[in-house]
Design brief:
The protein is 37% helix and 22% strand. By secondary structure, the protein is an alpha/beta fold. About 2% of the residues have low confidence.
Length: 282
């Protein structure tokens, strides 16, 4: 276990901003002799711990419970009860309840292929969204300086399109808009072979897509697979004779993605049952 000097509130802010999976552990009640007071907090990730609830077996058990939930991507809240003289084997002998709030990180991911004008505007506009963005370009000098400061963004020199596509997580949404049509077609071919992408979008005209379709059919892709590719992207802006500026196309392309990504609330993300809270605090 790696214990970091960063205080829990700074770590929480950073991890939330970066979209990294983490757990906030808060001591909510205590009875008898306990290492810390109610309100004490710590933040736990898969490989690091920030701040402390007092140490000892009780803290180790809290960390283990948090990481078990992280490993299974169990979003939401759960309550852990510790009898320090029983479950935790600590001589102080008190009793503690710890609330675990699990944040699985950004569940939506977007891969942007191409760091040209439209690609840059897409990445800029996606910054406020709770998505993890991976930005690829085959040119090693294509990325702007501001990319280093954008949260939840990873940018990579990707001279091998097939390898870049193979590294994407399942369910990732992809937008293809490189500087080269041959590279675009190679990327679409590789993305279709994955068969587990969230969605695939390609910049260009309808005539470009007609040419690509013919070659992709020759490469073995059937009509059902080809129908999953959106081309052109951003039709609300430039695809029908409207505003064809990079900003307008990027804005329309992201608007098309929003209903595809979705952030529906699940029943297990609604918090603790009121009856359980009344029992704790009553």
């Amino acid at each position: 276990m790696s214990v970091r000097p960063e205080p829990w509130h700074a770590a929480l802010h950073r991890l939330q901003r970066e979209g990294q999976p983490h757990v906030l552990a808060t001591q909510v009640t205590s009875a008898g002799s306990t290492p810390r007071e109610p309100g004490a907090r710590m933040v736990i990730t898969a490989d690091a711990v920030f701040d402390t609830l007092g140490g000892g077996n009780f803290e180790w058990q809290t960390i283990a419970a948090a990481r078990e939930r992280l490993a299974s991507s169990e979003a939401g809240m759960s309550l852990e009860a510790f009898s320090l003289g029983g479950r935790s084997g600590q001589c102080c002998g008190g009793f503690v309840n710890v609330l675990l709030e699990v944040f699985p990180g950004s569940q939506a991911s977007l891969a942007v292929f191409g760091a040209g004008h439209v690609g840059q505007e897409i990445v800029r506009l996606s910054a406020p969204l709770p998505w993890r963005v991976v930005w690829h370009d085959s040119r090693d000098d294509a990325f702007p300086d501001w990319a280093a400061d954008q949260p939840r963004l990873t940018y990579r020199h990707a001279p091998d399109p097939g390898a870049a596509v193979a590294a994407l997580p399942a369910g990732c949404h992809a937008l293809v808009l490189t500087h080269d049509h041959t590279e675009d077609r190679t990327l679409i071919d590789a993305l279709l072979h994955r068969d587990d992408m969230g969605s695939i979008g390609l910049i260009g005209s309808r005539s470009k897509w007609a040419s690509f379709r013919s070659r992709l059919v020759d490469a073995g892709h059937d009509e059902a697979a080809l129908a999953t590719v959106r081309c052109p992207i951003g039709t609300a802006a430039g695809g029908t004779g409207g505003d064809k500026t990079p900003y307008a196309i990027a804005l329309a392309a992201l608007a098309e993605l929003l209903p595809l990504v979705g952030h529906g609330e699940r029943a297990d993300q609604r918090g603790l049952d009121p009856a359980e809270l009344r029992q704790i605090f009553g």
